Give the backbone structure.
Amino acid sequence: MIGGWELILILFVVLILFGGKRLPEFARSLGKGMRAFKKATQGIDEEEEDKE
């Protein structure tokens, strides 16, 4: 399991790699992608229930 120090180190490395300006843009696109994936998986589950 990832501990507190490891999480801080990972966040620090990401901040250095992407910079402060691109980080919010990256987080926004990641959130949109996760939402689209969730919608797609829920649609598949609903189709399977309709077939049964």
The two ends are 39 Å apart (CA to CA). Residues 20-52 form one domain.
